[in-house]
Amino acid sequence: MERFLSTWFVSAVALCVAAWLLGDHMGIGESDDPTSTRIIAVLLVALVFTIVNAIVGPIIKVLSLPFIIVTLGLALLVINALLLLLTEKITDAFDVAFHIDGFWWAVLASIVISLSQSIVGAFVNPPERNVRIIRR
After folding, report:
1. What proportions of the chain, in percent to the nearest 5, are helix, strand and coil?
2. Cα–Cα distance for residue pair 32/70, rounded to 1 Å
């Protein structure tokens, strides 16, 4: 449960960074909404994004493994963009304001989100160190 919550938090921060960097091409919440409503929208989008990446992501990546290998991993950009667009469709069905201006903006957003998740994740979940205590 702790891992899910930290992944959800990291995804929320990464989505905010991507929305900020991409400006009008990616948005979470309405611009005239109060801050509390936009925070709720970010948390809901991040929740859907985390669930989609946890359930659908691994299935698609395993099924497309040969294509990922042939393209030297570039297919992962397309897969991550499609997962982000799927998140947009799901949140739209729940009437949560989240939009991306097309496939190529989704590819760019997935790159920004991946980089942001790596950076924020390093602070939230620092790698465990193997520390040896040497006794004399």
Report:
1. 75, 5, 20
2. 46
Please check whether residue 81 is in contact with residue 52, taking contact to mean a CB–CB distance below 8 angstroms.
Answer: no
All residues at 6 or more sequence positions from 131 whose CB lies less than 8 Å from its CB, including other chains: none
- The pTM of this model reads 0.85
Nearest CA to 80 among 99, 46, 106?
106
Domains contained in the chain, number: 1
pLDDT at 4 over 70: yes
Give 103-114 pLDDT, tens digit per residue: 999 999 999 999
- Residue 52: count other Cβ atoms within 10 Å of its Cβ: 18
Q: Which amino acid is at 28?
A: I
Any domain includes 20: yes
Q: Does residue 48 lie within any of the structural domains?
A: yes
* 80 close to 110: Cβ distance less than 8 angstroms: yes
pLDDT digits (tens, 9 = 90+) for 83-97: 999 999 999 999 988
Domain with 59, as residue range(s), is 2-124
Evaluate whether residue 80 is within a structural domain: yes
- State which H helix or E strand residue 124 sits in: helix 103-124
